[in-house]
Write a structure and sequence with these properties.
alpha/beta, Nitrilase/N-carbamoyl-D-aminoacid amidohydrolase, six-stranded mixed beta sheet
Length: 256
């Protein structure tokens, strides 16, 4: 599977500019990738306290994501600011060229940034089988909570984090991405934004795709807008799990 990491600045609270920006970037990938990963809340930036910016499931934002997947011929992953039944969500999505639009909401809301005051946390996992690979999608702050990300009985092969991880804590991002790969015996892809947001926080990206041993396959340059594409070989992962089956010794647990 070819995976494209789209590391980009975001236009604060300007959906149309963000949609126009990403449409150009995605169009250039047509015929060149199988899956493209966008940053967290790609259409607005990390904004949780402006309900007028939230999108319903029949909004222009969701329509556009579906259209991109169909027109460009590859799957799309990211998150957006969503509203449903009077609640607001940081909603991760997986859109396919065949018209599927699967989603689950961010599990861990960032209380230090006030996200918990506006956003309802999710209670289900977004695990999708696409092109024979099981893919689990999580959002930014979820990276700090390994129990929710735990790969139980190899239920996924690729773990994706879509993020707005600030530069002041980028060392945590750089540390936890390969840790999640090692402990879960899975490929891990993290895509983070660049630039300064409307709250004054800077973001340096550090978007990276790791193999199942925690070694980087590709890494975006710091503080640069760029797109980088790489292959993952699922057979190599399966052989590694067979030859080094540490997953069989994992603890059993139930999440309440």
């Amino acid at each position: 599977m070819k995976i494209s990491l789209i590391q980009s600045n975001l236009h604060w609270a300007d959906k149309q500019k963000n949609l126009d920006n990403f449409e150009k970037k995605l169009a250039a990938l047509k015929g060149k990738t199988d899956l493209a990963v966008l940053p967290e809340m790609f259409s607005t930036g990390f904004i949780v306290d402006r309900p007028e910016l939230a999108d319903t499931m029949d909004s222009q934002t969701v329509f556009t994501i579906k259209k991109w997947a169909k027109d460009f011929g590859f799957a799309l992953v990211g998150s957006f600011f969503a509203k449903e039944n009077g609640n607001f969500y940081n909603r991760a999505f997986f859109a396919t060229p065949q018209g599927d639009f699967l989603f689950a909401d961010k599990r861990h809301t960032f209380s230090l940034g006030g996200e918990n005051n506006f956003i309802t946390k999710g209670n289900k996992k977004l695990i999708v089988n696409y092109l024979g690979i099981n893919i689990f999608v999580l959002v930014c702050y979820d990276i700090r909570f390994p129990v929710w990300a735990r790969n139980v009985n190899n239920e996924y092969d690729l773990l994706i984090f879509t993020a707005n991880f600030p530069d002041k804590r980028i060392d945590v991002w750089d540390t936890l991405l390969p840790a999640r790969a090692i402990e879960n015996q899975a490929f891990v892809c993290g895509v983070n934004r660049t630039g300064k947001d409307g709250n004054g926080f800077t973001h340096s990206g550090h978007s990276t795709l790791f193999d199942f041993t925690g070694k980087p396959i590709v890494r975006c340059l710091s503080k640069s807008e760029m797109i980088i594409t790489a292959d993952i070989n699922i057979e190599n992962l399966r052989k590694f799990r067979t030859n080094f089956p540490i997953w069989q010794d994992a603890d059993k647990f139930v999440i309440l």
